[in-house]
Amino acid sequence: MLTLEWDRGTVLIKGGKVDLPYVKFDERSSAFRTLAINYGKLVKYLESMGIKYVDNVMDKEQCIIKVKREVRLRSYQKTALDKWIAKRAGVIVMPTGMGKTHVGIAAIAALRVKSLVIVPTIELIDQWVNTVEHYLDARIGKYYGGEKVEGCITVTTYDSAYISIERLGNKYSLLVFDEVHHLPSEGYRQIAELSPAMYRLGLTATPERSDGLHQDLFGLVGPIVYRVSVEEARGLYIADFETNLIKVDLSDAELRRYRELMRKYREFIKKSGISFRRPSDFKALVKMSGRSKAAREALRAWREARRLAMTAPSKLDAVEEILRKHPNDRAIIFTELSDLSHEVSKRLLLPEVTYETPREEREAVMSMFRRGDVKAIVTGKVLEEGVDVPDVNLVIILGGTSSERQYVQRIGRALRLKPGKAKIYEVVTSGTREASRRHAST
Amino acid sequence: MLPLNLLRLRFSKGQVRPRYIDAAEAEILPEVISIFRQSIGKKLGEVNALIEDLGGDPRLLRGLMHVLRNRLTLEDVNEAVLIKARLDAFREAAKFYPINAEKRDDVLGRVASRIGMSKQELDDAFLKIYDDEKRIIDFREPSPDELRREYNLSLMQTMLFKAIDIDIEVRMSGSQAKAFLRRAKLMGLMYIAESVVGGIRMRIDGPVSILKQTDRYGTRLAKLVPMLIGAEWKLLARVKIGEGTHIYEESSDEVDFPLSPPQEEVSFDSFLEADFYRRLSSICGQVEREPEALTAGGRIIIPDFSVGDAYIELVGYWSPQYIERKYEKLVKLNIPIIVLVNEKLATSTWKTLPHFVVTYRDRPRVTDIYKLIKPYCKKS
Fold first, then answer.
1. By the 8 A CB rule, do A351 and B90 touch?
2. How do residues A82-101 score in pLDDT, each as one tens digit?
3. What is the ipTM metric for this complex?
4. How many of the other CB atoms lie within 10 Å of CB of A272?
5. Of chain A residues 209-238, which have a CB less than 8 A from chain B?
């Protein structure tokens, strides 16, 4: 008799020959093997051919999931859920701030099977767990670097899931991918491929990827079953916003220093004959610096100049001034430069939330921020995606070199507001490349 | 092992090799070492900036810093106290939001006095929850040649992160070979092995490999490499780089590895373990992580750490099933072991284990078990 077994991300087929394009014979185990994602297809095939088989793939542990409070959905959320339930595999696209998490929880509540929720950051784990606990009565687990507890509903990160899917895969019948645009990448896609789960839900505001891999979402999760665009949503369910560009000046001494450094740098470039048409030309200079003292000096000058512009002390003044102008707003200050975010945090005694912030502090700070014990936090990339910090209506961005997606996400954060206007400030240093290179902010 | 973005490669004729340190580049090694030698008392971040200013391939420089990081001791900061003070300061500063310089001094002064610090001390320590802001207090200096060899090993391992599978032929004794394969199996890898004269030939990959070219086993393959140190070997790996797959061939004749396995940069299951390991090592010198397996009633148990003959197992807050399995194993283990267990789990049954059971509240402390391990500590 044919037997199907789970083996670390694959399904082993023992006791018979299976002739399917996605099934291969594995000499190491003297059995046929296929990727776990094909499990559903395989079972359907066996059924349709009337082939008898013993199925030991899914873990048999039972789970009880009860609904504690009804998940109240707005009409568009309800439509999205219904479309998904018709297929039980697919992606829902909805702008930030429109309640994707609630749709996800409603999906779990509808199926009531063991579920694995995969999210990009540890902050999002806590947020999902809190929301799930509010609505559902079930054993809930957190599974990531610091804590590995499984439940009927387990929330984990993409990183942990990638590593652990060989062990976790066959325990969960439903996968919920939050911010599913991460999934198609080379590594993370294996979470979908090495899981036998038949039910799959993807949630995102922006499924498109510059590398085109979003096309693979169809195979990994399912088709897009529902989509609301930002344009449709704006003004409808989420607040409108305005952006302000603040240019700060270097002090005379700083500006002199900046110009001197840049002159030194440009002179070398001219002499050396390096042409700067593409960003990769910069590498030529870096390479040269290993052998030539002059190149080393030029590079050092460039670094210092950039630092001067990025961490201009007047940026700190500008931040203070903006905060002073809006003392009652809850604010997030973004900067990708850790030196600058350290400085802001230290000078204004505002908590900093970055990848390097110890977990204990990060958790404490986030709950202080949610309770309103602190009014502003400084952060890098950690908070960019979907973290639930209600009532933020002031966003300050320091330094202007972010990709489109990050920019949208940041604004999205500000958009997750109670009605009223979101205020977005971008602070750049005038007279430097930072101001000229800056992308359009509206 | 280095972060993947520090990998340096050289392509030729469809093959790929790590770009080890060449003779010209080796000239900067003494300079790098000398910067670190003079770095005692400076902040790690400052020293890293000095190294970057040396010029040349930034990936090489950052790679060297990474390798040398294992040879540095940073000032020990009482993180728990500092975090508490920081949180207090954030909370109090919020009352004067946004705070000005004068009020800032007041707040810092008040918070500092609660933990027995001066305002200035707290101001200086404020950012020391970040490694870059900590000062270097010790540097175990390598020779330029040692540094070169350690970098080579790290680089080669990093290249294998992207390996799909690996064929190895190695001259080693039967028992060494067995240990090698057991390690591979424990990591969830699969192999086909055959003996050859004086050694063993094997192909190692994982369950998924037959279905899909994947580098998901690469990190595990890389972790096997230090077991080759000192042996004579050659290997052929298929390595995935970008869209393409490349062949990588290497042998013990072509690359200089360290003469003995360098003190490992260890990867940990949890922050708790990493933190404990760091503290234990600083007090006790050589601490082995995941030493040889012990048998317990027919099943194997690999202790978290050993110091000399003392074995230490850390039981943190994992799933109930996991904790139960661990308990079952420990009950059957005949060799005494020090068990550090979270007090939330330490029910009376745990205390009846036939071992040295010590409970902890927030995190395990070396001082709690120091008496037990002292005879094995090198530094005492």
1. yes
2. 999 999 999 999 887 678 89
3. 0.75
4. 15
5. none
